[in-house]
Task: structure prediction
Amino acid sequence: MRQKSILAGGAIGALTCFHLLTACTQSVPVDRVACAQRIRHLDEVATHLVGVMDTSAQAAANSKAPNVKMTTCKVTVHTENGELNSPDEIFLYQEQALQKNLVMPYRQRFLRLTPSNADTVVESRALHIFGMMGYCRL
Result:
């Protein structure tokens, strides 16, 4: 799945409020090795989230369980002044829909992933949106 680019404007303009500098891009001295490890961990987490996942196995085993499809892709956020993404943050677009009604996703959101000060923790902030269904299609 290729990475998408979006312009921050309209409903997406709220993404700018999530653009916070984290420990790896601040002007204060930081441990560069620890910073690189946190960014590597961030990339690993994002890699696991990107793609298409579903609950078809659970739905087949339990007739009361819904069959849900979740599609996630990386996005780069731009404004008229340039990119918002810093090296230590990743934006994802994610939507979830019932397999029987994929044209009507019930959850659409942007996720902003950033490393935390703990080496094995990635922080996620969600911005719930509406009306962008199918954004991850190739």
Observations:
- Strands lie at 4-7, 51-54, 68-79, 82-83, 90-98, 107-115, 122-128.
- The first strand starts at residue 4 and ends at 7.
- Confidence is low (pLDDT under 50) at residues 7-23, 25-29.
